[in-house]
Design goal:
The protein has helices at 2-45, 51-76, 80-102, 107-128, 133-157, 160-189, 216-227, and strands spanning 199-203, 206-210, 212-213, 234-237, 240-241. By secondary structure, it is mostly helical.
């Protein structure tokens, strides 16, 4: 009798696990499909913009999609391999966005911007636990040639006035970095705002917030915290409420 009972309980647990796993897979697929659908809508909306603004808009939509898929992976497919893969895709999307924003700059400011974007990308990959020494060396070699060509071209094109402007741009970029750091610190210290859910970018004192947050209260708090940071000229929010 005890043997029969043990077998019955084992079968019950096995069935329950299979049902739970199937539910997780269905939930993950639904979340992934929604992220892809939202991306297509956002990408289509970018067509109203022109030039680099359109490219930046599309990359922002790609970052939002990658972040949503990472959230869904952590919630429903929380294996080290799956999360690692989703983190890498988000890091790549954020790197593409950062490089696209650098295209609006020129001279040494542009070079510094791309260098910062590259460093941030390598750090993000390292945090995901997937960066190998070989991959980093190969990436460095490829980008070193590109950066050298860009630097040579920019140096030939720059005049004294352009150099002064580039220096001013560099100071602004440094200030923007400090603003971004202070905003993220405020988020990390606040009990309501989940710092990992809010992506922060700063350009010329304008703070741009993106990502998905659980509630409007969290979105409002994130905006309020950013506004109180010294040096912030304006806060633009594209935060979306998770449904």
């Amino acid at each position: 009798m005890k043997k029969i009972l043990c077998i019955s309980l084992a079968a019950l647990f096995s069935t329950s696990f299979a049902v739970a796993q199937a539910a997780d897979n269905d939930a993950y697929k639904a979340a992934k499909d929604k992220a892809e659908s939202d991306y297509k809508v956002a990408k289509d909306n970018c067509k109203s913009l022109k030039g680099n603004a359109e490219d930046i808009c599309k990359d922002e939509a790609k970052v939002a999609e990658a972040r949503a898929i990472l959230d869904a992976t952590r919630q429903h497919q929380n294996t080290a391999k799956d999360v690692d893969k989703a983190q890498r895709k988000l890091a790549d999307a954020e790197y593409d966005l950062a490089k696209e924003r650098c295209d609006d700059m020129s001279g040494s400011a542009k070079s510094a911007c791309k260098s910062d974007a590259k460093s941030a990308h390598k750090t993000a990959l390292a945090n995901a636990g997937t960066t190998s020494t070989t991959a980093v060396v190969a990436q460095d070699a490829r980008e070193a040639g590109t950066n050298l060509a860009n630097t040579t071209r920019d140096a030939a094109a720059d005049t004294r006035a352009a150099t002064r402007e580039a220096t001013a741009d560099t100071r602004t970029a440094m200030s923007d970095t400090m603003i971004t750091t202070k905003v993220k610190a405020e988020y990390a210290a606040d009990p309501l705002v989940k710092a990992m859910d809010v992506h922060v970018e700063t350009q010329k004192g304008i703070v741009m917030l993106s990502g998905f947050v659980p509630s409007k209260a969290e979105a409002d708090k994130a905006i309020a915290l950013a506004r109180k940071i010294e040096g912030v000229q304006e806060v633009k929010s594209s935060l979306q409420i998770k449904k």
